[in-house]
């Protein structure tokens, strides 16, 4: 029984490490690609005499950043709407409901 428990803990730890690794790879790619895009846009803007400060300049980093933020929220288990307190309240609610239903049949 104890070996099964340790095996389960090891599986969870490995899964958690893989999730973190995936997020950090995503973050690294985000930084490298967006830095390349921004430098490219800056160089072209300076050569053409255009302005760098346009919405289109920040379109990719902004929307990709939203996706990255959702990835981070999932990996770091941040959920302000359906957080841990909400889960605990729902669990208590259903336990109480089951107790009431069981009491009807006694």
How far apart are the first and last residues' alpha carbons, in Å? 35 Å
Beta-strand percentage range: under 5%
- Arithmetic mean pLDDT: 89
Unreliable sequence segments: none
- Helical region count? 3
User: Percent range for helical residues?
Assistant: over 70%
Rg, Cα atoms, Å: 24 Å
The biggest beta sheet reads: none
What is the number of strand segments?
0
Described by its quaternary structure, the protein is single chain
Going by helix content, strand content and strand pairing, the class is: mainly alpha
Order of secondary-structure elements: HHH
- Overall 3D form: elongated
Walk me through the topology.
Elements: H1 2-48, H2 59-75, H3 84-104
Helix pairs in contact: 1-2
Describe the model.
By secondary structure, the protein is mostly helical. 80% of the residues lie in helices and 0% in strands. It has helices at residues 2-48, 59-75, 84-104. Helix 1 runs antiparallel to helix 2. The longest helix has 47 residues, at 2-48. The two termini are 35 Å apart. The model has no long low-confidence stretch (mean pLDDT 89).
Keywords:
106 residues, mainly alpha, 3 helices, single chain
In short:
With 106 residues, this protein is an all-alpha fold.
């Amino acid at each position: 029984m104890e070996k099964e428990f340790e095996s389960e803990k090891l599986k969870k730890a490995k899964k958690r490490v893989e999730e973190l690794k995936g997020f950090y790879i995503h973050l690294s790619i985000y930084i490298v690609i967006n830095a390349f895009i921004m430098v490219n846009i800056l160089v072209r803007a300076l050569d053409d005499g255009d302005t760098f400060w346009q919405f289109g300049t920040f379109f990719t980093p902004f929307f990709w950043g939203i996706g990255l933020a959702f990835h981070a929220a999932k990996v770091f288990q941040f959920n302000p709407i359906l957080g841990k307190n909400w889960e605990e309240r729902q669990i208590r609610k259903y336990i109480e409901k089951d107790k009431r239903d069981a009491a009807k049949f006694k």
